Amino acid sequence: MHLEATSSTSAAATAEKATGVSLRAVTKKYGPVVAVQDISIDVAAGTYCCLLGPSGCGKTTTLRMIAGHEEITYGDVFIGGRRVNALPPVKRDTAMVFQSYALFPHKTVWDNVDFGLKMQRLDRQARRQRVGEILDIVGLSDFAQRKPDNLSGGQQQRVALARALVTRPQVLLLDEPLSALDETLRVRTRGELRRLQKQFGLTFIQVTHAQDEAFSLSDQIVVMGDGHVDQVGTPQRIFNRPASRFVANFMGDNNLFEGNVTQVEADGEVAIAQLEVPQLGKFTCQAEVAPDVGMEAAFCIRADRMQVTRRGELPEQTTNHLSARITAIEFTGYITRVALLAEATGQELLYKARTQDWLARDLQEGQVVELYWTTEAANFLSH
Ligand SMILES: Nc1ncnc2c1ncn2[C@@H]1O[C@H](COP(=O)(O)OP(=O)(O)OP(=O)(O)O)[C@@H](O)[C@H]1O
């Protein structure tokens, strides 16, 4: 897409209109099936938000309720502060980009993009200007007279985007818009989507099950699991400070330990919790909210935040450490992944290091090593 070649007037006009989306205690039931349960989300104007979660967790249903394609069972949806529950999709100032693109096969690219404007009953001259402008922005001016079947997947995706943007919505809703593209194109299109969102200053809400997509695109990620919202935060926060066992597991490469809270200390903005893990001893971790002493809870430590050393060579005053046996070493290129078993419990563990650093340690399969980490690197999980 040639985004530089945009019309600044239309982008500015849209940016002024940009608005936020709020869901309040929204539930969706399909007969006895509860697809989405009691979710509340605030997406500020101009935010790129991704709804991230495994298959069947309710992401698409949530998006469709915002768009107005799905009735809300309980709760309210607000767009720009206006309650839109009873409004049909066309009156919500949203536009949707579907996974399948849903283009008209018998219409040209130009007519596909023009269609929404015709529905809005814009006069011919205004339509011609807006369609020409948006095709230029997405780099499809030379393809205006082609039919969708004669375009590549990436080009079809751009037609779908152009068709959504040409109506100048306040909010763009995207349902897995990159899933039909191959890996290289997906990565390239990610960058283009992000640039487009920034350029127009619009609110984007996108459904994805791909973590890397959510990380690279979003200002805000809503992690969903089983119809609930599990955590909302920036990509960095979700990655570094998962709030729950579910999020820690979904992010992958996390080692989780179950125990009881034995001590809590406030440390400025955060709390330091000590947990006793059966057979492994006491460990300290960082907690966003001070937990109650005695409660059952867990903490996680990411595979790349641990350090490894030979037995007997543990640095002095290391609070968090355990012995583990190396069971497999997997070279993946830049990174080496090391599988281990905790000596005391047999729990499977994962350690990751830069291959260069790992090779310098000269450790072998079958060897017992010490894994250790700082309090700050370990993260308390309340649920
Ligand atoms: N029309 C329907 N009738 C009955 N159940 C439905 C209907 N649509 C969705 N569901 C159910 O609601 C739940 C949430 O579905 P939804 O499509 O929102 O999930 P999702 O997170 O978008 O999944 P995916 O990534 O696979 O698209 C699932 O259990 C699904 O089977």
TrEMBL record:
<feature type="domain" description="ABC transporter">
    <location>
        <begin position="21"/>
        <end position="251"/>
    </location>
</feature>
<dbReference type="GO" id="GO:0005524">
    <property type="term" value="F:ATP binding"/>
</dbReference>
<keyword id="KW-0067">ATP-binding</keyword>
<dbReference type="GO" id="GO:0043190">
    <property type="term" value="C:ATP-binding cassette (ABC) transporter complex"/>
</dbReference>
<dbReference type="InterPro" id="IPR013611">
    <property type="entry name" value="Transp-assoc_OB_typ2"/>
</dbReference>
<keyword id="KW-0547">Nucleotide-binding</keyword>
<dbReference type="InterPro" id="IPR008995">
    <property type="entry name" value="Mo/tungstate-bd_C_term_dom"/>
</dbReference>
<dbReference type="InterPro" id="IPR050093">
    <property type="entry name" value="ABC_SmlMolc_Importer"/>
</dbReference>
<dbReference type="InterPro" id="IPR003439">
    <property type="entry name" value="ABC_transporter-like_ATP-bd"/>
</dbReference>
<dbReference type="InterPro" id="IPR003593">
    <property type="entry name" value="AAA+_ATPase"/>
</dbReference>
<dbReference type="Pfam" id="PF00005">
    <property type="entry name" value="ABC_tran"/>
</dbReference>
<dbReference type="InterPro" id="IPR017871">
    <property type="entry name" value="ABC_transporter-like_CS"/>
</dbReference>
<protein>
    <submittedName>
        <fullName>ABC transporter ATP-binding protein</fullName>
    </submittedName>
</protein>
<keyword id="KW-0813">Transport</keyword>
<dbReference type="InterPro" id="IPR027417">
    <property type="entry name" value="P-loop_NTPase"/>
</dbReference>
<dbReference type="GO" id="GO:0140359">
    <property type="term" value="F:ABC-type transporter activity"/>
</dbReference>
<dbReference type="Pfam" id="PF08402">
    <property type="entry name" value="TOBE_2"/>
</dbReference>
<dbReference type="GO" id="GO:0016887">
    <property type="term" value="F:ATP hydrolysis activity"/>
</dbReference>
